[in-house]
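May I ask for a single protein's sequence together with how it folds?
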Amino acid sequence: MKEIVIISGKGGTGKTSVTSSFAVLAGEKAIIADCDVDVADMHILMEPDLSKTEDFYSGELAVINQDTCTQCGICADVCRFNAIPVIDGKYIVDELSCEGCGYCARVCPVEAITNIDLKVGQWFVSNVKTNTFMVHAKLGIGADNSGKLVTQVKNEAKKLAKEQNKEYVLIDGSPGVGCPVVSSLSGAHLVVLVTEPSVSALHDLKRVYQLVKKFRIKAVCIINKWDINKKISNEIKKYLKKEDILHIADLPYEESFTKAMIEGKSVVEIGDSKVAEILKSSWEKIQQIVN
């Protein structure tokens, strides 16, 4: 079983569109994992049925027992995060501001404060339209610890793949270089970098590849919309050559991408297009590389 992670240094490069196309082309051979939990959107294209739903807990939250509280205000005075305001004459914990450090509970003279496990989101296992499974998640508003949720999603996908003897785990990773990306990369066999010809995309491609290098994972690259700025596309190609990153495809700007998103499909599902043919060829190359 091979893990293939599709990432980008920045959002908006077409990473998820590329991943969904590979998922359709892989069909029953792959388990799909949407590890972009902060802004998950693979479900829009894969028609999941949410057959399994689990709550995800990470970190702690302070809770004040109003029956015990004497309104002394010591907890509010010591809170470094200003997470205990007075509302209607009562000290209340602001869930978005509380860091769960537990200091307020330690200083409360009447032990009116306790810490509880914090629910930060949910993760799902779904049957999808390619007759396989997708593991995906939803992070709560303002919730932290998305790296841990990514790990949960990825581990469940790997577990399913082993149980069902699948050939691949296809992972739609988060943009950027933070903890969610680190969690996505751990244990991967191949990284597919999706970029676009803009100054910011080239800058962030360099940043994310420095991270990939630390994991010593082989990387390949797809340049999306390469023809909208051929000068920067050439700069990207020079960088890929310098870093020995295999450049497997140039995707031209094409309205088929937009049409596919409107229809809730991957670009390889909406009929003949140049982009679809290039993506099919790219998937063949990727299979040859990982195998």
User: Anything to note?
Assistant: The chain has a mean pLDDT of 94.
